[in-house]
Amino acid sequence: MNTPTKITVARIIMTPIMLFMYMADFIPFGLGKLFALILLIAGVLSDFLDGYLARKNNQVTDLGKFLDPIADKLLATTAIVLLITGANPVIPTIAGIIFMFINLQRDYVITGFRQIGQLKGIIIAADRWGKNKQIALYITLGAGMLLAYLRTFAFATIEFVHIYTIVLYALIGITCLLMIISEVGYIVNNPTVLRSTKKDDKATDEDEKRD
Predict the structure, then answer these.
(1) 10 Å Cβ neighbour count for 66?
(2) pLDDT, tens digit, 9 for 90 and up, residues 189-201
(3) Which residues of 98-118 are buried (b: 16+ CB within 10 A; e: fewer)?
(4) Nearest to 15 by CA among 77, 101, 85
């Protein structure tokens, strides 16, 4: 296992620890949520670091390709769940469910799209919109966890929390918009992936004959 893959595995291990620390209300002064925020930031930085090292040192492996998207989705999905659950969630339940739905369906669609492309020998690389979406998502999740931490302090006045919450909602809206643009862009820019070929038609006919 090379260094980039070890970093990816570390990100996977960090995620349940982040989950525990965020929910550990017994830790005084809101330090549990602060530690969770620090772990999220570490996970985000590791996401950029492992890819950079893999490309720079020519250490791209099949194991790394398999684990990296799992680590990314696990980290982001866990953070979203934490922000939309609890007695007083950072993101209101309805808005949070919509946020998670857009994120998950985008990931499922793109994953399926890439799998079909691979079967046809078409490699679909991440585009600019996908990268912008990922950066916006990480910023939004970090801002949400920071708000959760600030709520534990008396000096965080109601007015300050209100203004910060509005900013967070704006970030969520921008992130959701980038998710949709990225998803549509993948499909529009790679029309041949969903286009039926003679080879596909022949394979379908053979399958029907077997049935």
Answers:
(1) 11
(2) 877 777 765 555 4
(3) ebbebbeebbeebeebbeebe
(4) 77
